[in-house]
């Protein structure tokens, strides 16, 4: 069985095809804009390559470039929290509900919800637990 046939049956077949085409054209942002899930997948690909679990026609340097760019994109996106978003993030980490945050800041609950959505989007998370973990990992808390 040749390398291509092995890849067709692999869980890495789709990403392998995408990376092969992207590397030839030098694409980077296509992957970095996909967020944390893509970073996890790229890490799995890199690990599979290093351990010899799978042989991909992608250079390790290209995967490193993508992972470095993903880390830069993540850091950049996390540093653009407004002062109000940083304040709300701190209150979220204190365990306050949206209503309690609204009361503490004397703003409407709809405004708190809007800021929370903005924080989630900027940090690429889906829950309060994730936002706290991500904020700590990025030294925002």
Give the class from helix and strand content and strand pairing. Answer: mainly alpha
* Net shape: elongated
Compute the average pLDDT. Answer: 82
Q: Stretches where pLDDT falls below 50 for ≥5 residues?
A: 1-7
Query: Taking Cα atoms only, what radius of gyration do you get, to the nearest Å?
Result: 20 Å
The tally of beta strands, per DSSP, is 0
Number of individual domains: 2
Structural write-up:
The chain has 141 residues and is mostly helical. It folds into 2 domains: 3-78, no CATH class; 83-137, Winged helix-like DNA-binding domain superfamily/Winged helix DNA-binding domain (Arc Repressor Mutant, subunit A, Orthogonal Bundle), CATH 1.10.10.10. Helix content is 72%, strand content 0%. The N and C termini lie far apart (52 Å). The chain has 9 helices and no strands.
List the helices and strands and how they pair.
Elements: H1 3-8, H2 13-25, H3 29-32, H4 36-51, H5 60-78, H6 83-93, H7 98-105, H8 109-123, H9 128-137
Helix pairs in contact: 4-5, 6-8, 7-8
Question: Any key phrases for this structure?
Answer:
mainly alpha, disordered N terminus
Kindly summarize this structure in a few lines.
By secondary structure, the protein is mostly helical. 72% of the residues lie in helices and 0% in strands.
